[in-house]
């Protein structure tokens, strides 16, 4: 049984029965008796002083229950939203944390900033009334680009953040890096932009908040990736509600990609307002609101230099990055361009010295925070672009240059110069397998074929490493993180032998209900159809930290293993009693408990029944079979691998077609290969989106979002993607009981540099900023000649 | 969406009467532009007249060398029509490339050309094939129909009944799509007709237009090579975050050459 459903089996996803039959239950599906609807009045300006908000006319409109402004919120002593990661500037000062009111008080700082909320009996009535809220603005100059914002004379976003600087942070040894550069044989240099992205989860954000006067408590249904964390933030930091007086439920959630980690103004306003009006309040984002208010991703402007010796060995790297944080600090905004970015610039290489400077900058744009990969895609793009540039400039084969600088497989655990200690890996193995899968030797012939058709063909490498499974609580705390990052897992046997698993992580597309069930099926021999996974409800599961940073399996899965271990320890005692043997003589394998050297055995279902109907039961053992474990990881996990892609560029139109894509990843032990491949495919698709199609564009003068709908913001579609060839190499992590590493973000981390390396190779140019959209590529193609003709 | 009065006339005469009585009313054909506009509250008509119940506006006929398409015929029906595929395969192919299946199952030819969206495909077919637009009041040649961005020769209360396309000797349509919206950044219909070569360009300018220099060159020699060295002028072309005027001008040449090549 376990062979088909245990660890390593491509079990079909248990959750898909409800998802593909339209029986998922999302927040917006939920309706409460007496429910009202919130509609937000939003700023049409990027930067303006609010002179007056007149709600009198709106309040008299039909069906209006209440209209609230920033002043109402301020008068009720509600706090602002917080940022949970403290970053210290070079001079030791803490990052600037300007107020982030849940409804703007006197100033709006980005288009879409909320100015008032209208609560109506119906959504249409709320919306009609919202149009009657009169706001007088004094429009002020806006600044959009992070480098512009840091320049002298730029419009100021917050009075208490001079020069729009949130922090000026550094990592690494500056002097040693400079010294290494002084000895360099060659220095490769690049200026590049990591383009700003809009997350676009399929399900828009939504909330239903209900206040119960009788118990003085709240229930909040929310599209959250981490309901416990949201509860903690809402209660302890913003609304000052005792934690035992709030329940947060994140039911089925249709994708997050990071954007649903955060505590946003909207669910906070709904929760606050539900007490003011003593009725449930519902809000669901319109897609236009998602574009304007979901935390955006990336948006870096960077200069990078890589020093090499005459053999192509990396000596040092220095990086100067301006990171756009948007108008306010989102929940984990400060950490993304610092600790989730700079340590990753060591990559899979032995570069002995790195020095990274990051200026976190406020602008009049939507807040920026973690988006699939969160800092690691930015790092990997930078690193793999500069490595590629160095290879071309020194005329060393790009695969060979990487190979010369990889950390050798026998050097683990490997301490990088920038914080991280890698547990294990074999980067040569992934590269070699990828080269074989793509038939690297055959590339010149394929290029010649393409050129016969008038196309230009290029090949691009991306050898990445990422740090996920975030993370050891103590380490996170030492770096300024305001939370612990352990996870909880509970394995509860029912009397008839079926199992309910409770996890503090949250599935919003990752397939936990299948993968976690496979772990218990494997460990305890329970048929997978007899296992249910419960998540997303703070009243049902022990406190947990949720799902992001590819942590659910490495941390949450490990907690479940630890709970299984506790089950086994207790079951052995019960089995010993049932079999009239000593506990030390009981052997366990996949749910069968046997007296060593005999054929006497009982199975876990029999033991569970005995535990709940303890008529003949050991006196020193508690009844019941239900164990909870909390697991704090020993380290991050470090998935790594090599992606190689080939593109064909049409020089007449600038269209880039992906001809081949090979992904070889090392995720350690794989629980469900089908689910993992799906994660890789989805990750690559998002990486292709960033590299070829997606970009968030604001008008630099007015601060208006020009890509505010799918008419202008280009998401990847099936016809933009090739059939991916996915391979695996495996070095099980020695640091967690499953030997696993995270797989959720690797594709999005690896893909962009592979594509841009391929496009620039095809065009014979040094660099092209993402996305490689048709006009940009066409212009580059006009300015360059085919590579073969040039060489 | 704001509230409005909804009408669903059963005949053209009834529809004409309704619109005559209420000049501010909006005609609803396939609704592929009007409905999103209403949903976003960008328009607030007091009355909407749904043309979906009028049988005489629907259907495809081939008569006397003309493919005649009723105004309320869906794009998907034109794309799938064996008669259209036989008489003017380029027209069926163009219709089959509009939007996505949902759009093609609702959008109509009358709605498309009446809207005269600068990035729509059907205006290129109408102008490129030299169609005649039959309305509730008169017949309008395509050359006189498209007058500007979202502007046509239609008068107030005038309803498109059908569009008659003379079958060309050969024709082809090539489109360079906006990667996000999949509307035409540049779409070129090239047709060799009884009255000479016609080249109609959509997407590139505020309104569909004929590229007369290309027509002249192809009139001498109907081959892709005849357009070598011929450049469309960038002056007056559209420019946005997806494509500059210069790029659009270049693409007109590329798409025209590819259309000629596709004519076989």
What does this protein look like?
- With 791 residues, chain A is α+β, with helices and mostly antiparallel strands.
- Chain A contains 22 helices and 28 strands.
- Among the domains of chain A are: 31-140 and 205-284, Aldehyde oxidase/xanthine dehydrogenase, a/b hammerhead (Aldehyde Oxidoreductase, domain 3, Alpha-Beta Complex), CATH 3.90.1170.50; 142-193 and 296-401, Aldehyde oxidase/xanthine dehydrogenase, molybdopterin binding domain (Aldehyde Oxidoreductase, domain 4, 2-Layer Sandwich), CATH 3.30.365; 486-631, Aldehyde Oxidoreductase, domain 4 (2-Layer Sandwich).
- In chain A, helix 19 (673-693) links the parallel strand 27 and strand 28.
- The N and C termini of chain A lie far apart (60 Å).
- Chain B is α+β, with helices and mostly antiparallel strands.
- Chain B folds into two domains: 5-166, Uridine Diphospho-n-acetylenolpyruvylglucosamine Reductase, domain 3, CATH 3.30.465.10; 170-263, Enolase-like, domain 1 (2-Layer Sandwich), CATH 3.30.390.50.
- Chain B is globular, with a radius of gyration of 18 Å.
- Chain B starts with a strand and ends with a helix.
- Chains A and B meet through helix 21 of A and helix 11 of B.
Shape of chain B: globular
Helix content of chain A: 25-40%
Radius of gyration of chain A in whole Å, from Cα? 27 Å
Given as residue ranges, the uncertain stretches of chain A (5+ residues, pLDDT < 50) are none
Biggest sheet statistics of chain A: 7 strands, mixed
Name given to the CATH homologous superfamily of the domain at 31-140 and 205-284 in chain A: Aldehyde oxidase/xanthine dehydrogenase, a/b hammerhead
* CATH topology title of the domain at 31-140 and 205-284 in chain A: Aldehyde Oxidoreductase, domain 3
Distance between the termini of chain A: 60 Å
Domain count of chain B: the total is 2
Question: Count of helical segments of chain A?
Answer: 22
């Amino acid at each position: 049984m376990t062979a088909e459903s245990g660890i390593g089996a491509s079990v079909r996803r248990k959750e898909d029965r409800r998802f593909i039959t339209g029986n998922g239950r999302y927040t917006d599906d939920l309706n409460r008796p007496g429910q009202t609807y919130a509609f937000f009045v939003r700023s049409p300006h990027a930067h303006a002083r609010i002179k007056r908000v007149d709600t009198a006319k709106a309040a008299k409109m039909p069906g209006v229950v209440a209209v609230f402004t920033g002043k109402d919120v301020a008068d009720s002593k509600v706090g602002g939203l917080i940022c949970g990661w403290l970053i210290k500037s070079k001079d030791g000062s803490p990052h600037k944390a300007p107020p982030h009111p849940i409804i703007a008080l006197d100033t709006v700082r980005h288009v879409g900033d909320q100015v008032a909320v209208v609560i109506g009996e119906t959504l249409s009535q709320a919306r009609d009334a919202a149009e009657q809220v009169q706001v007088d603005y004094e429009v002020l100059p806006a600044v959009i680009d992070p480098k512009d914002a840091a320049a002298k004379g730029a419009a100021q976003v917050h009075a208490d953040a001079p020069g729009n600087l949130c922090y000026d942070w550094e990592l690494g040894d500056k002097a040693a890096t400079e010294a290494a550069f002084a000895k360099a044989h060659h220095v490769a240099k690049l200026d590049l932009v990591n383009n700003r992205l809009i997350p676009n989860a399929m399900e828009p954000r939504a909330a239903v908040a209900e206040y119960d006067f009788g118990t003085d408590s709240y229930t909040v249904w929310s599209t959250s990736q981490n309901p416990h964390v949201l509860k903690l933030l809402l209660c302890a930091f913003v609304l000052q509600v005792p934690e035992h007086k709030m329940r947060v439920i994140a039911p089925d959630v249709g994708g997050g990609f990071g954007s649903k980690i955060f505590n946003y103004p909207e669910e906070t306003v709904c929760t606050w307002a539900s007490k003011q009006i003593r009725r449930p309040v519902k809000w669901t984002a319109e897609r236009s609101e998602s574009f304007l208010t979901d935390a955006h991703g990336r948006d870096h402007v960077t200069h990078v230099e890589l020093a090499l010796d005459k053999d192509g060995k990396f000596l040092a790297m220095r990086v100067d990055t301006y990171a756009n944080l948007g108008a306010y600090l989102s929940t984990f905004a400060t950490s993304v361009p610092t600790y989730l970015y700079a340590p990753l610039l060591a990559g899979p290489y032995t570069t002995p010295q790195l020095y990274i400077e990051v200026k976190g900058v406020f602008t009049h744009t939507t807040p920026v925070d973690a988006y699939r990969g969160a800092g690691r895609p930015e790092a990997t793009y930078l690193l793999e672009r500069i490595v590629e540039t160095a290879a071309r400039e020194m005329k060393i084969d790009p695969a060979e240059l990487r190979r010369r600088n990889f950390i050798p497989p026998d050097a683990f655990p490997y301490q990088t110069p920038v914080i991280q200690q890698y547990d294990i890996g074999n980067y040569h193995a992934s590269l070699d397998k990828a080269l074989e899968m793509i038939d690297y030797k055959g590339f010149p012939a394929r290029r010649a074929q393409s050129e016969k058709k008038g196309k230009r063909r290029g090949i691009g490498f991306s050898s990445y490493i990422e740090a996920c499974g975030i993370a050891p609580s103590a380490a996170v705390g030492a770096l300024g993180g305001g939370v612990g990052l352990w996870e909880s897992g509970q394995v509860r046997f029912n009397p008839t032998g079926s199992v309910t698993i409770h996890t503090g992580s949250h599935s919003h597309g990752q397939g936990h209900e299948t993968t976690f069930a496979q772990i218990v099926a494997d460990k305890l021999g329970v048929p997978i159809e007899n296992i249910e996974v419960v998540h997303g409800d703070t009243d049902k599961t022990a406190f947990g930290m949720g799902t992001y940073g590819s942590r659910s399996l490495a941390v949450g899965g490990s907690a479940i293993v630890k709970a299984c271990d506790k089950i086994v320890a207790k079951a052995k005692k019960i089995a010993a009693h049932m079999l009239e043997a000593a506990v030390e003589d009981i052997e366990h394998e996949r749910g069968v408990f046997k007296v060593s050297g005999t054929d006497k055995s009982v199975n876990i279902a029999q033991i569970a029944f005995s535990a709940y109907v303890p008529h003949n039961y050991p006196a020193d053992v508690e009844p019941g079979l239900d164990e909870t474990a909390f697991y704090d990881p020993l380290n991050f996990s470090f998935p790594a691998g090599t992606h190689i892609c080939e593109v064909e560029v049409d020089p007449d139109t600038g269209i880039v077609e992906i001809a081949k894509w090979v992904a070889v990843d090392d995720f350690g032990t794989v629980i469900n290969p089908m689910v993992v491949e799906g994660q890789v495919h989805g990750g690559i698709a998002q990486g292709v989106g960033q590299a070829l199609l997606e970009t968030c564009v604001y008008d630099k003068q007015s601060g208006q979002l020009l890509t505010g709908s799918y008419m202008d913001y280009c998401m990847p579609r099936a016809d933009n993607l090739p059939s991916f060839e996915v391979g695996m190499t495996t070095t099980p992590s020695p640091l967690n009981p499953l030997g696993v590493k995270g797989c959720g973000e690797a594709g999005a981390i690896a893909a962009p540099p592979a594509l841009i390396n391929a496009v620039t190779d095809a065009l014979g140019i040094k660099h092209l900023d993402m996305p490689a959209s048709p006009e940009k590529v066409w212009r580059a193609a006009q300015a360059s000649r085919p590579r073969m003709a040039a060489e | 969406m704001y509230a409005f009065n909804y009408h669903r006339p059963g005949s053209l005469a009834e529809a004409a009467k309704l619109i005559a009585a209420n000049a501010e009313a909006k005609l609803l054909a396939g609704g592929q532009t009007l409905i999103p506009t209403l949903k976003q509250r960008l328009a607030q008509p007091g009355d909407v007249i749904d043309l979906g119940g009028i049988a005489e506006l629907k259907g495809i006929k081939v008569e006397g060398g003309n493919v005649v398409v009723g105004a309320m015929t869906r794009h998907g029906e034109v794309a799938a029509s064996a008669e259209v595929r036989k008489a003017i395969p380029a027209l069926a192919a163009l219709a089959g490339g509009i939007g996505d299946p949902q759009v093609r199952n609702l959008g109509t030819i009358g709605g498309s050309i009446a809207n005269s969206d600068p990035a729509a495909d059907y205006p290129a077919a109408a102008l490129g094939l030299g169609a005649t637009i039959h309305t509730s009041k008169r017949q309008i040649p395509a050359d006189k129909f498209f007058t500007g961005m979202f502007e046509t020769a239609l008068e107030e209360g005038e309803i498109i009944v059908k569009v008659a396309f003379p079958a060309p000797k050969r024709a082809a349509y090539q489109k360079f799509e906006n990667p996000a919206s999949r509307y035409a950044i540049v779409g070129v219909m090239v047709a060799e007709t009884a009255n000479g070569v016609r080249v109609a360009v959509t997407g590139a300018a505020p309104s569909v237009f004929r590229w007369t220099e290309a027509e002249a060159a192809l009139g001498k020699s109907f081959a892709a090579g005849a357009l070598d060295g011929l450049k469309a002028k960038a002056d007056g072309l559209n420019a946005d975050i997806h494509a500059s005027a210069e790029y659009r001008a270049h693409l007109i040449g590329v798409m025209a050459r590819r259309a000629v090549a596709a004519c076989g």
